[in-house]
Amino acid sequence: MNRSLDETRLDALHCAPRKENSRPAFTLILPTSPQVPTPNREFLLQTPIEGVSSVVTVARLAGWNTKIRDLRIGEEFEEVCRDAAERGGVVAMPTFVDSYPVNLRVLSRVKELNPEVTTLIGGALVSSLPDPLILGLRVDYAILGEGEAALLELLDHLENGGKPQGAAKILGLGIRDGEQVRYTGERPQLMDLDVLPIPDLSLYPSVRKDRIIAELGLTTSRGCYGRCSFCFLNMKKLSYKSPARFDQEVSTLVKKHEIRYFYINDLTFTSNLARTYQICDVLRKFEITWSCSTRVERIQPELLRYMHDSGCRDIWYGVESLDQTVLDLANKMTRVQEIEHAVGETVKAGIKVMANLIVGLPGESEESLQKMMEFCKRNEVIPTSIKYLTPFPGTRIYDMAVARGYIQDPLQYLVDLAHRKVNDVNDTIINMTDLPEKRLREAYATLMQIREERLQTF
Ligand code: B12
Ligand code: SF4
User: Which fold has domain 212-389+429-456?
Assistant: First the structure.
């Protein structure tokens, strides 16, 4: 495969990293999350986050004096801001669905302490709602979409004292110019993920304190072939790590950090079946268990047996609804029969079924709610992730919510999102159904009850 310029540049970084700490400071600050975590995925809110690990590793290999500060593990706010401000250079933050208020507090304080610092944000949220975030946070730059290649180029620009006007040629940026944002154009996605460096997790303060990470999220691919109405795809095209590269990554991480369990964060683990088998071959070599998320329609008994024998403990299926009309309206491209088939076969293969369900998708009716309850009662599934429909920025549902006047001020909406508990019956509902809100809450409460009972047996 011919490599793009970005892929070639990133690949060259492993072979010829710049001298360590030979360039200015790059401090990445991780925000806290107020969420109630999804059961069995609690660790994801404390452990290294792959997207962040990847961009900081790129900065480190590029010679920047790189440091992570992690508010999630109780590092003290003022000390973190002072440290970042004193170090100068670039202060960066990822943006998550619930992070706007923390991003604002941190970045404002750092700029107040040292106006010379260059501030930078990246991640799914700013990519899905760039203008309000960039202006609301008053940051200098945002990287939209995939981060690594744009960061490498931006860091070169910044080291040489580059000004925002001069960055116009760097694809993938939002550059704040007073009260306006200039966008430099979409950056093509990396198609060969083997060019990425293996993330250096020792940059995390938690890992410096305790090398051992029992459970970790990791991807083997990016993107998804689905186009569901409620989902934002930060990277749209499917791209893959080769099995050999994945092997090298797992082997390095297991050896360094004694990892016992991986949550494979691919959006659709079964997007390419031949490769799924190869990834299983890699995973079975290690004394670990693992879980993954996927769609239902490509599930086959022999694949499930293969996954089971290579350590797969549970599969999180994007079920969402058990009503064909609701699924079709959400553009889920799934048949109810396919859900039933996948679930039945997975149970037979000895793998636990975790179901992701959404209460309140457009078209939700008394009948569709009943179907959801019956499905959960009839099958050996754990409805682990039950969410009220939430219009996430960058989705068709979000546009519908704006058009109907449910969301009027995007910034205020980001604050509201940050205060949502999620995984809680009393969570906020933006009701896009013809049912009363009370009915959605009752259905949610029943599903939660089933979940609690089933979790006892996990
Ligand atoms: C793992 C995961 C989680 C984990 C861990 C979250 C976390 N903080 O990492 C858990 C389970 C906790 C979680 C929870 C939620 N998640 Co989530 N999650 C993911 C998932 C599946 C994988 C993330 C990942 O590892 N990606 C792989 C890496 C390589 O990509 P990346 O993270 O985007 O990082 C790249 C760029 O964004 C960028 N980048 C990232 N950070 C930074 C920082 C800087 C400074 C720079 C320059 C660049 C940069 O560079 C990276 C490398 O290219 C994504 C979907 C996906 N595959 O991306 C959804 C996703 C991010 N989650 C999403 C949502 C909605 C949620 C929840 C709100 C779900 C819910 N209703 O409860 C909660 C909110 C949690 C929160 N704190 O925000 C949405 C975000 C939508 C949006 N518009 O912002 C996504 C995109 C899923 C979707 N398709 O809708 N999630
Ligand atoms: S919800 Fe799942 S299947 Fe649908 S687009 Fe998002 S990641 Fe793909």
Answer: TIM Barrel (3.20.20)
